[in-house]
Amino acid sequence: MQRFPEYLLAGYRSFMGGRYTAERDRYRELAANGQQPRTLLVACCDSRAAPEIIFNSSPGELFVVRNVANMIPPYEPDGQYHATSAAVEYAIQVLKVENVVIMGHGRCGGIQAALSPSSTPLSDGDFIGKWMKLLKPAAEQIQTSSLLTAGERQTALERVSIRNSVSNLRSFPFVKAREVEDGLRIHGAWFDISTGELWIMDDETGDFVRPTL
């Protein structure tokens, strides 16, 4: 048996002696009655942008789905493997979440890959390359702008990607039905890793603004 990482065991010991002890009753309630999260949160895999930490969430509050560049693909009932779409379906149809938040972040490696795709795949499967092609039209348009710096192009595509995922989410018939029938709310957000600032997407204009805290 391979040795389990000691720093993870140390973290687990700290968790058991701290947060789990403080929230033991909550965990027992969740074990007995199941989860009823109010929000589906689609976030990036990036280790610097953990939604449970950013929103200081308690156990059972968020149904979190993480993938490279926090993207939601368009509705494609083609019988293939669609992990993100499956999670969206479960959260909306079974858990009946009230909100969906798609949260991007600054300095996203996936977005950088979309802006500067490598000519050499990371593996024979080229999984990241194929995944990031969801943003190819937007990336090419932003990349050709001579008025933007490299950093501005990066931030622009990070935010355009969020708007694109909101649009893709609404291509799912059951999502649109929930919006109409019982007011499912869909939000976009962008987190700045370097400053901790959270920007919220205006649903009408698509602009990102700082919330009043």
TrEMBL record:
Highest rank taxon of the organism: Bacteria
Keywords of the record: Lyase, Metal-binding, Zinc
Keyword Lipid biosynthesis: no
Claim: Lipid biosynthesis is one of the keywords in the record: no
Molecular functions (GO terms): carbonate dehydratase activity; zinc ion binding
Positions of Zn(2+) binding: C44, D46, H105, C108
GO biological process, one term: carbon utilization
Catalytic activity: hydrogencarbonate + H(+) = CO2 + H2O
SMART domains according to UniProt: Pro_CA
Function of the molecule: Reversible hydration of carbon dioxide.
Family: Belongs to the beta-class carbonic anhydrase family.
Entries under PANTHER family matching the protein: CARBONIC ANHYDRASE
Record-given protein name: Carbonic anhydrase
Species the sequence originates in: Ectorhizobium quercum
Highest classification ranks of the organism: Bacteria, Pseudomonadati, Pseudomonadota, Alphaproteobacteria, Hyphomicrobiales
